Amino acid sequence: MESQPVMDLAAALDRLDGDQELFVTLAGLFVERSAPALTAIRTALAAQDLPVLIKEAHKLKGSAMEFCGRPAVAAAAALEEAARKAALQDTAALGERVLAETERLTAALAEIMEKGFPS
To answer: Is the predicted pLDDT of residue 2 greater than 70, yes or no?
Structure first.
């Protein structure tokens, strides 16, 4: 998944009518809330708690959509679908993908928050 850009920054800004301040505010919320969400996903994976996996993957998918973070959105959607189908053999690998893609998105957002928008 590394070959796919972590997000489409231009599209994400376009969704916000170019409001960089709002983008940074939303990015801060995503970064702040992603750690507990990832912890909940890890815990749910270990316990094979499908309702929690569905809920957390769905929330993460929606949040990543705000930034046009296609890899994270796709990973969360796949995990949500596998959990809905009770496909336990798939949830572990999909969960790892969600964790990795969310961490990539979080790192990219944190960099924008720290260094500003690329020229």
So the answer is: no
